[in-house]
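From the methods appendix. Each design record in this collection lists the discretized structure first, followed by the designed amino acid sequence. Records were kept in a plain field format so they could be parsed without special tools. The example shown here is representative of the layout used throughout.

RECORD:
C-ALPHA CELLS (212 positions):
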C-alpha cells in the first residue's frame, strides 16, 4: 500500500481508500465543517456560503438580476434573493421574515433567505458562485446542521466521470459539470478533478471568470 500526500492511501497503486463512510456508495476523506442548510440538500451537492458582510443594502429604482442578494437598509437578520429580475420600486418594501416567503418590489420579486447558510451553487450568476464552496456530506433538511467537505476526496457511485476531467460549478444548481459553462453571463469556476469515474479531488479554485 502506497501513500499519497499525508494519510491518503493508494490501494493497488490506483484507488483512494476513503475512510469516512456515510452510506454504502458514499465516502470521503478531507477537511470538513459543520454548517446550516438554507434549503434541502443531498449528498454530493455543491454549495456556496456567503457571510453576512458580503451582501449589499437594498436600493431604490435599481436593476437587479436573478440570484442577486440584498439586505434591508435596517438589518433584520435575513437576506433576500432576487427570484424575479427587474427594477426595484421607489420605496423599500415590507420585508417578510419567514424564509421562503416573497415580496414584490417594483418589478422585482424578493425571496426571504437565512443569512450565513449553505445554498446550492449555480454558475448562472456570480452571487451563487462566489464565496466559500463546499460539498454536502449527507441529506440535510432546511435550517438543520450538517457536515460539509471543504476540500479532499469524495466518492459517489452515481458519478461517471472520465479520469482527469476538470470539474466546474454547474448551471444546474448543486451539480458539478466537466465542461466550462458557456452561456453569456455564466461564471467559470474550477472546483476539482476526477480521480476515477466515481471519486473526485475537491479543491475549489478562487479564480472566477465570466462568459462575455
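DESIGN:
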Amino acid at each position: 500500500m502506497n501513500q499519497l500526500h499525508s494519510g491518503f492511501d493508494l490501494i493497488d497503486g490506483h484507488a483512494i481508500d476513503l475512510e469516512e463512510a456515510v452510506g454504502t456508495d458514499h465516502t470521503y476523506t478531507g477537511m470538513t465543517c459543520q454548517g446550516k442548510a438554507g434549503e434541502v440538500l443531498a449528498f454530493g451537492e455543491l454549495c456556496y456560503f456567503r457571510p453576512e458582510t458580503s451582501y449589499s443594502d437594498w436600493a431604490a429604482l435599481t436593476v437587479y438580476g436573478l440570484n442577486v442578494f440584498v439586505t434591508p437598509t435596517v438589518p433584520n437578520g435575513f437576506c433576500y434573493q432576487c427570484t424575479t429580475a427587474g427594477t426595484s420600486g421607489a420605496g423599500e418594501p415590507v420585508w417578510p421574515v419567514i424564509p421562503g416567503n416573497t415580496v414584490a418590489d417594483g418589478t422585482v420579486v424578493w425571496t426571504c433567505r437565512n443569512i450565513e447558510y449553505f445554498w446550492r451553487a449555480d454558475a448562472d450568476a456570480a452571487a451563487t458562485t462566489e464565496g466559500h464552496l463546499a460539498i454536502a456530506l449527507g441529506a440535510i433538511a432546511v435550517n438543520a446542521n450538517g457536515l460539509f467537505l471543504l476540500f479532499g476526496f469524495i466518492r459517489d457511485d452515481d458519478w461517471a466521470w472520465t479520469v482527469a476531467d476538470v470539474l466546474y460549478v454547474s448551471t444546474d444548481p448543486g451539480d458539478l459539470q466537466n465542461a466550462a459553462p458557456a452561456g453569456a453571463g455564466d461564471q467559470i469556476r474550477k472546483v476539482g478533478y476526477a480521480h476515477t469515474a466515481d471519486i473526485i479531488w475537491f479543491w475549489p479554485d478562487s479564480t472566477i471568470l465570466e462568459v462575455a
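APPENDIX NOTE: Residues 115 and 175 are 22 Å apart (CA to CA).
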